[in-house]
Amino acid sequence: MERNWHRLDRIMHKGNSSKPCYAHTRTDCPPADWETLAAHLDKVAQSASIFAEAFGARLWGEVLGRCHDLGKLSDDFQHYLYSSGAASGDAGAENEDAPSLRVDHSTFGARFVAKAVGRVPGQLLAFCIAGHHTGLADESSSDDAAQRSTLRHKLDPEKYVIPEATALGIELPTLTSPLRLSRGEEAFQLAFFTRMLFSCLIDADRTRTEEFCDPEGAVERSGLGAGFGRPSLAALKYELDRSLRKKQEEAEPIEVNRQRAIVLQHCCEAAHLQPGFFSLNVPTGGGKTLSSLAFALNHALLKDLRRVVMAIPYTSIIEQTADVYRDALGTLAEAGLVEHHTNLQPKHDTRSNQLGTENWDAPLIVTTNVQLMESLFAYRTTPCRKLHNLARSVIVLDEAQTIPVELLRPALAALRELVLNYGCSIVLCTATQPALERRDDFELGLEAVRPIIPDAVPLFQALRRVEVRAVGTLTDDELAPRLAQEQSVLCIVNTRKHASRLYDKVAEISEAADCFHLSTWMCGEHRRNVLKTVRERLNAKRPCRVISTQLVEAGVDLDFPTVYRAEAGFDSIAQAAGRCNREGKLPLGFTYVFEAEERPPAGLLRVAADTAKELQSKHPDPLDPKAVEAYFRLFYWTQKSRWDKHRVMATMGIDQARGRALLQFREMARAFRMICDNQLPILIPYNAKASVLWDNLATGKVLFVPQRELQPYLVSVRKETVQLMQARGFVTEHESGMWLLENRSLYSASKGLDPASSRLDESLWGV
If DSSP states are collapsed to H, E and C, what string results for 198-219? Predict the structure, then answer.
């Protein structure tokens, strides 16, 4: 760590003061017990260099660590520490959302590296240091107000004045880029590299600051004092293998289980292949959940990769998937598996899990596609902190084709970059057909994707357990009796309003106790309880009629003899059919596709349904691989004008003449949004625990409750609807930003929030 570095412990502000420079203080401790700036910079440099070494950028990480807090050399900052006498988790830390009233200690280091390193490399380092509390900035802006927060403005001493400091004798090592550049992608690659370096600095700075300011928490994080050391990948593999052997020994000797064993065998054999892109195409019910984990753990161990990240498409199914992994991994899951998503149940949000979500420093991460992909384009410190731990990982993307068409270009660029320059293996899982691979009519697709199952066609044929039939238009009055006459049936519709209305009709003409409703108008805990009851009834062969939105598709483990699906894309129809005769215990199950009395909502759902309708005459069987290929060609591959609809890639460029990277990190993050809805969370007093949380907030007993505790009891509603509900006295806003349901009659035990009972225009509730 001594290469070309002046001894930092000799640096004094102004060079002559007898007082050492400090980085952090502690309450009720004399200055002699404070952390010196030299010690902090040394520690952060050490950690950041280790983090960055995973992608060949050790010296870059070291420079960031050494220089990130050089602004603390200023008299102003040191005076702040001496005069305040307060503890500082990071004294002088700017706020991400508002200008700080404290001392700016970030900009000096950014200017130092920009000048000392020069041109684009110096600028990339400056982005990281200038933003290590406020987040990555835009390089410039045409808006006068926004311009003041850009990197260009902060690096200009004539426009932005900061406290004076002197970094005596610091010489920086020569930096070389570890990147393999791709023609036309250079600006994107520089932005990605900057964000990964930024991640190294943020994690190193926060971890090392915690060591001084919260030593007990630091010991807990290291696993030395809290009783939970992270298990190794080898230990997880051993436990998974044991569980899978037991599962196979106990499995019924039916065709479905024989095919599942074949899928697992292919996954274990393919693990020996070199890192890169893989595809795993397995129809629903084929055992993809555990087989893909088996591949990932085996491959990581064989190729010296560091962790496994399982990305699931929908929050509505992620907990089920995590529970499957927990059952398979036994007690090792407590510390070895980290769940990172918004629907996390409190019982699973252990201290180990909380620490793991901060930086993904665990062998197995279970998250959502949205959490993963949006983090790869984030500018804020918290979502970026974990990113460096993606380097040299196995990333499994379940139902990879759910990436929105409008974000395909930047999303696939990110996946390519993870493989090319960060040593990742990426598995593209799908229950239909490969959608992201390059072909003649899909030039954007990923190249060199190796199938884990060499020929998936026989597998799809062997696991064919369902016949799909189109039944034309069915009004609710026609559909409800058909559902009522079935003992067990699942009906999936496209909107929450339709699910609510249809449920009422079916419950009215059949035994209401045998009817169940599922939608996101129900809080997460409510949905979990309903699904538990539904599974119990199906296993007991009791009557069970479920009306649901598409939240039950893609991974929810249900097995009905009959399924109805409102018109949708072929991929959604295939997912719906996957809930029909899932275990293959019937000779054949039936899925009926119907046109509802109202069209799918405008946007993605309607475009997908229209695409399927256009192909129906040529491809009457939507489960036929040729039909699915034709669907993706029309809906996905030929939509070149929509691949970057929000112009994410336009936020990155290079000014070769001036040697400047034109990286607009905040514009980039705003443009790359996989979920673009303006909704507000309402806390529902659903059960005794939720009622206690509600009472504590409503009565002022507590000012704040962590989101993870509230999440199982929240329902998201359109902002304008919440405001109208507030005007009627139905909800109140807590000072923490949470909304509290005051009128409990609006929440039904069968359907959750009920627009009809609110006496508001139902069109305000959205879909």
Answer: HHHHHHHHHHHHHHHHCHHHHH
According to the model, what pLDDT value does residue 585 have?
85
Angle between helices 58-67 and 107-117 (to 10 degrees): 140
Task: Give the pLDDT band of residue 701 (cuts 50, 70, 90).
Answer: confident
Q: Calculate mean pLDDT across residues 643-665.
A: 94
Q: Is the backbone of residue 58 left (phi > 0), alpha (psi -120 to 50) or beta?
A: alpha
In tens, the pLDDT along 404-421 reads: 899 999 999 999 999 999
Which DSSP symbol is given to 556? -
- State in Å, rounded, how far the first CA of the chain is from the last one: 58
Q: What CA–CA distance (Å, rounded) separates 704 from 701?
A: 9
Q: Which residue has the tokens 């046109």?
A: 595
Say what the pTM is.
0.87
Q: What is the pLDDT of residue 567?
A: 95
Closest CA to 236 of 142, 301, 169: 301
Nearest alpha carbon to residue 403 among 440, 444, 366, 365: 444
3-state secondary structure of 540: coil
Write the single-letter amino acid at 719. K
Write out pLDDT tens, residues 77-93: 988 888 775 545 454 44
**What's the CA gap between 202 and 386, in Å, rounded?**
9
Could you give the 3-state DSSP secondary structure of residue 748? strand
pLDDT score of 93: 45
Q: Cα–Cα distance between 264 and 281 in angstroms, integer?
A: 12
On the question of pLDDT at 758 being above 60, the answer is yes
Max CA distance (Å), the chain: 90
- What's the distance, CA 53 to chain centroid? 24
- 181-198 burial, b at 16+ Cβ within 10 Å, e below that, comes to eeeebbbbbbbbbbbbbb
Packing angle, helices 186-213 and 408-422, rounded to 10: 70
Asked if residues 555 and 578 have their Cβ atoms less than 8 Å apart, the reply is no
* Percent of the chain at pLDDT exceeding 70: 89
Is the Cβ–Cβ distance between 542 and 511 less than 8 Å?
Answer: no
Phi, psi of 309 (to 5 degrees): -120, 120
* All residues at 6 or more sequence positions from 570 whose CB lies less than 8 Å from its CB, including other chains: 432, 611, 612, 615, 619, 622, 627, 628, 631
Which residues in 341-433 belong to E strands, given as ranges? 364-368, 393-397, 425-430
C-alpha 257/C-alpha 584 separation (Å) is: 9
d(CA 362, CA 61): 21
Residues 6+ apart with CB under 8 A from 526: 684, 686, 752
Query: What's the confidence (pLDDT) of residue 19?
Result: 75
- What is d(CA 190, CA 176) in angstroms, rounded to the nearest whole number? 13
108 three-class SS:
helix
What DSSP line would sit under 4-65, residue for residue?
A: T---GGG--GGGT-SSPPEEE--TT--GGGSEEHHHHHHHHHHHHHHHHHTTT-HHHHHHHH
For 580-633, what is each residue's pLDDT tens digit?
998 888 889 999 999 999 898 888 888 889 889 999 889 999 988 888 888 888
3-state secondary structure 280-335: EECCCCCCHHHHHHHHHHHHHHHCCCCEEEEEECCHHHHHHHHHHHHHHHHHHHHH
And the tokens for 428? 């593209």
Residue 272: pLDDT above 80? yes
